[in-house]
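Self-study notes.
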Amino acid sequence: MKLITLGAAGINQTPLDWDGNHARMVAAVDEARGRGVGLLCLPELCITGYGCEDMFFSAGVQATALQQLDALAPATEGIAVAVGLPVFHESALYNAAALLVGCELVGIVAKQFLAGDGIHYEPRWFRRWPEGAVSTVEIDGRDVPFGDLLFDLGGVRVGFEICRDAWVANRPGARLARRGADVLLNPSGSHFAFAKQDVRRRLVLEGSRTFGASFVYCNILGNESGRTIYDGGVMIASGGEMVAEGPRFSFADHQLTTAGVDVAQTRQARIQSFDNGVEEDPSDGALVELDFVWPTPAAAGPTPPLGADSEAGWESSARLKEEEFTRAVALALFDYLRKSRAGGFVVSLSGGADSSAVTVLCGLMTRLAIAELGAGEFLQRLPSIPKLSEVVADAPPIAIDKHIAQRLLTCVYQATRNSSQTTRDAAAAVAQAVGAEFLEWKVDAMVDGYVETVSHAIGRPLDWGTDDLALQNVQARARGPGAWLLANLRGALLLATSNRSEAAVGYATMDGDTCGGLSPIGGIDKAVLRQWLAWMEEEGPAGLGPMPELSAVNRQAPTAELRPPAAGQTDERDLMPYPVLDAIERVAIRDKRLPAAALAIIRGQFPEYPAEQVRGWVDRFYRLWRQNQWKRERYAPSFHLDDENLDPKTWCRFPILSSAYKRELESLPE
């Protein structure tokens, strides 16, 4: 037997937060050393933050990253630590992982396969490193091995697959295993998407089994830079078995996971997997041999398996998507709030599904964070929120939650003569359920003022028969200034309440319900939101339970309440059934189908509707989609929650001006 202890830490970093990032890395290293870890893996580009965008081009950022690497080295006494950073070498920039061993930089491995799809734009900043190539980079007057490296740490061989390297068919792990790699490290910056963790588990398990090695995967934690959420998942597998898996969506600065593995056992498996007669190819990179004494493994036991306690048990829920949505958005809101240094949140709460969902998610943020961190640490993490320090530390937990929520979240119901008592009561019930401050006022006087002013200017009165859309929009826009004013007074962040289904067809009033600096549900469709709200009413997240006050919201048919009540306005009457709309969006936008192909697919999916009606819905979707790209360009930033996003800045680019599918729609079959 040859037992060693491996560790990996998900860390919540912030781009260019040099001091904060350094402190969090040192804290993770210190904890790992205290738990007997010999080799610790930290996430991809951990020193700078993954989301630096075009600041990666800055020579100052590149130089500071190396300075921070040097500053981290003294913290690695008695331990080996892998940490990510950008490295400039011979007129190109590389996404790299440095290995620090006993306070010394011993080598830097460069990423071979860059992520350039979806929300990732790595080829814009970095160059991929060629397989097998080895060079040196001068750092502080010393030549450091650089490129495709394998390290021998006191007789244990360690190699790297940096994030995407493990997702390709010809992953470097095969060559590293042929060269005798006992441990493969995978520092990652892998964005959250529903059910993606299952894919990662397969990659980790298959890598450890196929290559006869121990495989260490670690991911970034939290809302690092605004839009992208990282779940902080950490996994350690050995010989095809998962030996440790850390919690996801933690509110902590870092989460360390450790496991003891038997190198002799994985070597035996590798002997059976590879032809011993195959000699090492000199083009396979270089071996860096190092003296290293591994800590006694008995000092650190493995991290408890996933699901061993109530906090991790939600991973096995039959409603995993709802659980993931809850925890991903709650963590994203918490990080956005503290990193933006805003004084809280403001929501224009209409009593409908969208604004209620945003309000509930803010409430869940508070409850989940306090449950994990405790009230004291929660307050320390949000020093910019006025009056939070007044919370009494020894008050009952429910009282603390309510007290904090009231200072973090303000909801305002802005009625017009077209609003109903039903939505007003629903809004009040939701606000009370989460503990938010609830305000209400009427905007009729402002609406009437705008209408009177414009009517006088154009020389005719406005009426619903000829000016329907304009009269709807002016009501929504009249709500914007008051909500912004309230947010400014509180130093708070105004949250927009539009969802992805509305973004697809432009069913939102610019400067109305799109008002806000952040759009928490802009990346999720209406059908999923309604399912989630029903689940919240009846079941709720593990450890928190249901919110029955949502019954008043869930009983309503979604409506903008902008036409007179006699019109019986509903969203689906204005558009089409939301399940149909969302299905067309996936076929048309995700799958890039043109109208005729989309129509054939949608007819097959919804045979209960008349064919001509389905044709009309498909026609309407494409026309509304192309007309409203300008709106999507103006939406507030939203969280990336699945790989069907419509955000033109990170995922789905479409021209603002186009032919409007003219030929394709004219040729739609009757």
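Second protein, same conventions, sequence then structure:
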Amino acid sequence: MARKIGRTKPDRRDRPAAPQAGTLPSRDDILAFLSTADGKAGKREIARAFGLKGGDKIGLKKLLKELAGEGAIAGRKSALRQTSTLSPVSVLDITGRTSDGDLIARPAEWNESEGPTPEILIVDADAGKRHSGDAAIGIGDRILARMLPLDTPDEAGRTLHARPLKRLAKGERRQLGILRASARGGGTIEPISRKELKSWTLDARDLGDAKDGDLVRFELTPTGRFSTPRARIVESLGNPSDQRKISLIAVHAYGLPDEFPERVIADAEALEAAPLGRRTDLRDVPLITIDPADARDHDDAVFAEPDSDPKNPGGHIVTVAIADVAHYVQSGSRLDREAELRGNSIYFPDRVVPMLPEKISNNLCSLREGEDRACLAVRMVYDRDGEKLRHTFVRGLMRSAAKLSYQEAQAAFDGAPSDKCKPLLETALKPLWNAYQAMKAARERRQPLNLDLPERKIKLDDQGRVAGVLIPDRLEAHRLIEEMMIAANVAAAETLEKAKTPLVYRVHDQPSREKLKALRDFLATLDLVVPPHGELKPAALNRVLARAKDLPVPELVNEVVLRSQAQAEYNPDNIGHFGLNLARYAHFTSPIRRYADLIVHRALIKALKFGDDGQTDEEAQRLTKTAQAISDAERRAMAAERETIDRLIAMHLAEKIGATFDGRISGVTRSGLFVRLKDTGADGFIPISTLGREFFNHAEDTHALIGSRSGEMYQLGDIVSVKLIEAIPAAGALRFEMVSDGKRRANSGVSKVPVRQLPRNKRGRR
């Protein structure tokens, strides 16, 4: 039997001319007729259309039987149809890549019983992005595409190519879940999304080759007008627990490209280290890298020295050198297209999904100790008060004098240098510390927003299980590197503005009017005041945060101020950075892991005439769309990282159902409370119906739920004890029950705020 290949459904105008009357039509003639027929099309209609009579009808009957046997047509002889055809414009799911990095798709709808699902090569993958302004499409996306049938199969045997027209909304994509197989056949699919905590049943015939515990992609199939839909597994994606890679869920849920195409890897492997050439030789400058102890790549190095200029007494010169990724990843190359598609590196506790292949990120562009590396460096001159006087950029070749961890550097700053640090004290470490003290003073005068936001770090054991959840100490060594990176980013933005070279800024808007009003209303209940919209500066919020330290609820104030903030993003139009209190700011210091920084590097190369591998005109013209795409990629990465941490912790806590934990109320909604546990930082939910035997009203301005009879109140920031009732590791979801009593108020103040009363449940609770 010949292998059936999917074909497109032609427009009526494209129908081939009918053969001469009395001539038996070809297979393609019949399929073309069925694909464009209006109404019923059976054997009689085909014979009439092609003028067949007598013995020719016997030949037609035989031909129709062959087509039916191959699965090309189906139906009764009086009502035939072409099976599983694709329209000229069809909905496709992006399912993978070729070895060249090109995207592969399959039809979103296809009846498997009528023939193998065709594989479709996506050509001109940026077409949909250009036409609609969408971000680049990737694996897991659903698209609308124009089909391009081929006269002869391509080298992989494909007879269909497609050009994207539009990326469809996320809600139209297939769903993911974890299969829990039943010993009796069939099973259920557990959700991986907290927004849809619903399990779906499936029959044994719909399991495919999936095994218990596998992450699966599934569809819902209706079973009747009044019946609950059942699931059908479309694809098995592996077992996150067996592979010790819980991040596998996020990789597939967000369509993250976690493997590089073979040709991209080959391009990276063919690269050679940059020679000195016309570069500035910085190899005698004792630049050092200061990073986390477990860092695998090092893309920034720092050096400081006293300014010897008598016109600048007590001044400092700070040099920040950044790996020259633009030398290796040039605009329009396969490496560049892959980096833009990814947007940034994504860091999970159990793996990294890098933006660039390892040959670049961990070798050629990693500023390894004692090895020559290409770089872009900025030399910044400061006065004794930490105010920058001027700066200059160079394209150079450097050699790191030492690789230090934050802890090593901090010990040296504190007067307890290790043997490795002792030779660096006078030449590198003390000058860095002195320069930082001046820059720190200038920062304090500038008054950026000073929120205290500790971050969780998950420690895994050899089996990929959570061994502990840490909140690393915030050292002055961290702040030193952070301040010098911010200064370099500002210098990059200033240089490009002065040269009138297009760039992507890192912008952060001030709080919206609505969020600021909500913040002011809440702070007023604590006798704290902030200026109105248009007059607000970070310094005003810092004063609020400082005053809150003397109140019983400093964490609550920090939380509410944080929630009032806009989200930072990338944009070629500058509105400044509210949080840092800077007029212009661009990301320059991490081109190994952020595409935005690579864009800025190329812009500097062009503006300063450092070479012919800088920003191209085509790249400059599409900065708006690129900025949107990398902003989307950043949000996607943040969500994927956060959800993976939540899943790991939920898996860790699943063995502790019934245990009691200390935590803090981290969210208040009309339907209940979110609580963040003290030890692990895990977030869980308490439904309002479980709080007590009375109405609880939602007071929006005070971020509280208040009992209508007792005045008992649970408020954002309250320290509470909770019992773990349920854990769904695949979704990272936890459900708690409140153990602590709420705060008692003689007057709840409910009448002053909008409230929502909830009905009693069956147990008499509301």
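Instructor comment on the second fold: The CA atoms of residues 569 and 631 lie 6 Å apart.
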